[in-house]
Amino acid sequence: WMTGGETARWVDEDMADLITRKAVEFIDGCVGRKSEFFLFFSTHDIHVPRMPHARFAGKSGRGPRGDAVLQLDWCVGEIMAALEKHGIADDTLVIFTSDNGPVLDDGYRDQVNKLLDEHDPNGPYRAGKYSLYEGGTRVPFIVRWPARVKAGGVSDALFGQVDLATSLAKLVDSTIDADDCSDSRDELDTLLGEDAVGRPHLVHEAGAHALRMGAWKFVPPGKTRDSLNPGRPKQIMEPGELYNLATDPGETNDLAATEPERLKEMVELLAKIERSPDGGERKLGVRDLVLPIK
To answer: Which residue from 175, 165, 142 is spatially nearest to 293, judged by alpha carbons?
Structure first.
């Protein structure tokens, strides 16, 4: 996997230290030049092959995954310490999030099911990675900005990571070309906790597409995962499943039969989005349509 000669080689156990050091050096350099900065820090720790440094190996009691979480905590702490060192932590927008829900046995011998104990990685949500249910597509999303965002709040507003592009452009008084990110909405007020509703609807993607409208979730007919372990997918029968996540976050009570009008509305909207060449609202002539995203 490592082409390019000796200079291209790496040691998995050292990767977190390396990229964290580079991130801190980047912050130091920007502050030294008195320039604003954007840092995208994609952590090495949680994804395979999950090879934490010897400082963390065996320390969690939950196997390589638990040790990798300890290492992840350290990485975030180092970056926050750099912001604190320069006195800019309160004036810096920090976003901590993930790309999908949890998965257990994904083919690596890390004893994850055996060492899980009472920990529930997806909390109240159904299934996990590779699933159209909320456990697969709903992800942690933490915003920290003491100068602008009230601490300790929890929002139920609907927001997709695809909205970060347009929202952050708005934050810095910039614009995005009309042909780029046509599925991205300006949801800056939602991001900063000033809008409790967020976007009117959002498409979920995990092999197929599902649709959120406010608290309502439509999962169409077809196959999707229904477990934290990949296993055999579940077959969803016609006309699909409909859930009210406000009262049923675990998606246990299918309301498709008792909410026919709402079901029809969501079926038609999802079909319209899927027929669009790019999912963008301009080509459909309908506001707020989005590309399928996680």
So the answer is: 165
CA distance 240 to 139: 23
Residue among 228, 210, 230, 227 at smallest CA distance from 219 = 210
User: Which helix (H) or strand (E) covers residue 274, if one does?
Assistant: helix 260-275
Q: What share of the chain is helix, strand, coil (3-state, %, to 5)?
A: 30, 10, 55
How far apart are alpha carbons 258 and 256 in whole angstroms?
A: 6
CA distance 118 to 111: 14
Q: CB-based contacts of 235: which residues, under 8 Å, 6+ apart?
A: 222, 223
Global pTM value: 0.88
| Sign of the torsion formed by the C-alpha atoms of 247, 249, 254 and 260 | positive
| Dist. CA 153–CA 111, nearest whole Å | 35
Residue 229 identity (one-letter amino acid)? N
Q: pLDDT digit string (tens) for 79-133?
A: 999 999 999 999 999 999 999 999 998 888 888 889 988 888 999 999 999 999 9
